[in-house]
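Thread: "does anyone have the structure for this chain?"

Original post by V.I.:
We have the sequence but no experimental structure in hand. Need at least a predicted one for the grant figures.
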Amino acid sequence: MVDLELDELRREFLDETREKVMEMQSALDNLQDRTALDRLAYLAHQLKGSGGSYGYQRISTDAAALEKAVESLAAREGESSPHERERMQQYVTDLRAEIDRAASELC
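Reply from O.Q.:
Generated one for you, tokens below.
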């Protein structure tokens, strides 16, 4: 019974995480806006903390790397290079893939 309850909590977490990653993508598309940059950092920070709690270390690791990249960009007043944007986009893509992989394992 406990495993079924934990699986349900994980499904809910992954659904919420999927929504957060969609919001991350939107923020990433608007990096010139300081509010979007702050929101991206906040969402990455949330996933960094919660991913491991649900047993998804890869989500936590990718989110931590994204948070670090966003903080570095913010420290330079948001002046990003194409390489930085590409790297941040890859983190978001990796998060999406990991969510899909984890969700398929719960089915």
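V.I.: this helps a lot. DSSP finds four helices and no strands in the chain.
O.Q.: and The helical segments are 2-29, 34-53, 57-75, 82-106.
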